[in-house]
Specification:
2 copies of one chain form a homodimer. With 242 residues, chain A is α+β, with helices and mostly antiparallel strands. Chain A has 8 helices and 11 strands. Chain A binds a DNA duplex (30 and 30 nucleotides) through α7.
Chain lengths: 242, 242
DNA sequence: CGTTCCATTGACCGAAATCAAGTCCTGTGG
DNA sequence: CCACAGGACTTGATTTCGGTCAATGGAACG
């Protein structure tokens, strides 16, 4: 009882490039199944060699690495529409772990099919590279945040980005989106301590800009928040969905 | 009087995947020329739409973005063998700028050829995606550095990575490599102030671990430095060179 | 009801930023 | 040939942002 690519609830969101009927048919053929995991499950493990790659259909997770000193860096949050496992798919070994935060549903693709895809469906291979380029761009933005924004700006930046991303996949309801992470996860993503993260979040709440509590993020004043975050609110560019 | 791909001085370095004679012939055909630029030249400009993509043959540069508040983040340093411009190549617009620090020589490829490459040379297209995945991995490491390492660790980390990378392309001579950046560039890469960067560099010099002066980086004690940097010295993985 | 996990808040401390000179070097023009 | 101006690098003094420590509260759970 898996979801047909034709009926994919993400597909028609306008952050994703549209696909023709036959393209969808192919993607459907590329898909080998669906994986449903419970919160807390490790989907991909750093250093391992996953035989599968995935597209997130539902739910949220974190992508992280752990340093020698035991500290954890959340590289990014994983949302519906994200493609995961490309590194292992091409390079042979995961350089980070991916863990489910909420329950998640993933479309499963066989890793061994990737090369076939390059040989037979150049347009889809092109999409894959495009996805990697988009990811690269986001990571570059994150680097700029960690390097050049102070704690308040970083938090504002993260909340705005998350909010826009979730809104783009249709999870918004009256300026609020579901966001089931712990404050510790955000702290680990931004290179801040839990305590300080907590204090800055409170400040944003008190300022009436954003309120993240009980797994719900409400953006009260997007424009001001974006301004504080040094974010230029432009229309989000489209990207492929596989 | 351009360099033939067959005679490419980088090609046989063992961080790069080997290529057969016919593969080389194709790459040669994909190459449309060579570009030589002076220090200080902006090769790619954020927001612009370059008709070309490049592989660095010689010289060094920086890839950076500028935030709304005027602060500059160096996303990474560009070394021989790096492929640049992929984002513009696929997504249509550069998300960062690339500037030459030393004089540089670049292999030039026509951006419009990229799609043809996907259609006709899947193996090369695969390489391109691989390159993007490798890049993604490095950016993830950088994020972990900015987020979880303190100033001394960050600097040690950067110096080790740079040293290994330059050594891998044959620029090492007796534990020292040429490195013509300013301290400000390193500071902007690591999210540190110039002053503090200077002080930590001095500390490393005094500790007899690494000495970066007058455009030359000498790693006196790689093992200890790597340990301080929380780096696991493993053999560097190979990657494709286009 | 303990236990555990997460959020919250206050007190204190320290790493790194900022501020402020001063030193070299190199290139340039008188 | 020398004066000087601009860049990059150094170094010390001071400030501050954010980390660490410590304690408390609340909710979920067995």
């Amino acid at each position: 009882m898996t979801t047909d690519c034709q009926d994919c609830p993400l597909r028609n969101r306008d952050i994703f490039n549209p696909m023709s009927k036959e393209e969808l048919t192919f993607t459907q053929g590329f898909k080998t199944g669906e994986l449903v995991v419970d919160p807390g499950t490790t989907i991909l493990l750093e250093g391992s060699n996953s035989p599968q790659v995935y597209t997130v259909l539902k739910g949220m997770g974190t992508r992280y690495t752990t340093l020698e000193n035991g500290r954890r860096q959340v590289i990014n949050f994983i949302f519906p529409g994200d493609f995961i496992g490309l590194q292992a798919g091409l390079m042979g070994e995961m350089k980070h772990s991916v863990e489910a935060t909420t329950s998640m549903t993933l479309c499963v693709f066989r890793r061994s099919e990737i090369f076939r895809l390059f040989e037979q469906y150049p347009a889809r291979a092109y999409d894959l590279t495009w996805i990697a380029a988009v990811e690269e761009h986001f990571l570059g933005e994150t680097i700029a945040s960690l390097g050049q924004r102070d704690a308040s700006q970083r938090i504002a930046w993260a909340l705005v980005r998350i909010y826009l991303r979730l809104r783009a996949v249709g999870l918004e309801e009256g300026h609020t989106v579901p966001l089931a992470y712990r404050q510790q996860d955000l702290a680990d993503a931004l290179g801040l301590s839990l305590v300080h993260t907590n204090k800055r979040l409170k400040a944003l709440r008190d300022a009436g800009l954003a309120d993240w509590q009980n797994g719900l993020l409400s953006i009260t004043d997007l424009d001001t928040l974006a301004e504080r975050a040094l974010i230029d609110l432009e229309k989000p560019e489209r990207r492929p969905l596989i």
